[in-house]
Amino acid sequence: MIKKLEHSARQVAEGIFTIFQTSYAIEADLIGCDDFPPLARSIKNIQDSPSLFLAAVVNNCLAGVIEIELQDKQLDVHSLTVAPRFFKQGIASELLSHVLTTFDYQQAQVETATANRPAISLYKKHGFVEFNRWTPAHGIEKLALHKQCESLY
């Protein structure tokens, strides 16, 4: 089941934070990064975020979280994380598919590390294509992918 999270509530933000910490620690290892910026995010930052957070809930457990913003028909995926015990169960795909079929957007965009092959594969499976690569100041090479909404007309 996918549900909207009230991330401004401390207990909810703590649950999101826990998934971020466990999932991003594994991603940091995967891409070979000792100082991974998403791991520095605080509970307070999550609570104060203007983003929308949606969760996949399995047996009353927070299995995965997707963080998005939608402005002027531009859908930005800021994070997509899955609790490690729910890896390889289709949770990330379910969350991404839900967002792409629920919200009214013209273009969706996401960024990830170029070394994060599982994430890149997931986004490409959902119709995203690469359009930019760069290396920010933190030194982790990134790529941006986007997807145009399929028009009904």
TrEMBL record:
Classification via Gene3D superfamilies: 3.40.630.30
InterPro entries for this protein: Acyl_CoA_acyltransferase (IPR016181), GNAT_dom (IPR000182)
All residue ranges annotated as the N-acetyltransferase domain in the record: 1-146
Keyword set, alphabetical order: Acyltransferase, Transferase
PROSITE patterns the UniProt entry points to: GNAT
UniProt KW Transferase keyword: yes
PANTHER family in the record: PEPTIDYL-LYSINE N-ACETYLTRANSFERASE YJAB
Entry protein name: GNAT family N-acetyltransferase
Organism this protein belongs to: Paraglaciecola aquimarina
Lineage: Bacteria, Pseudomonadati, Pseudomonadota, Gammaproteobacteria, Alteromonadales
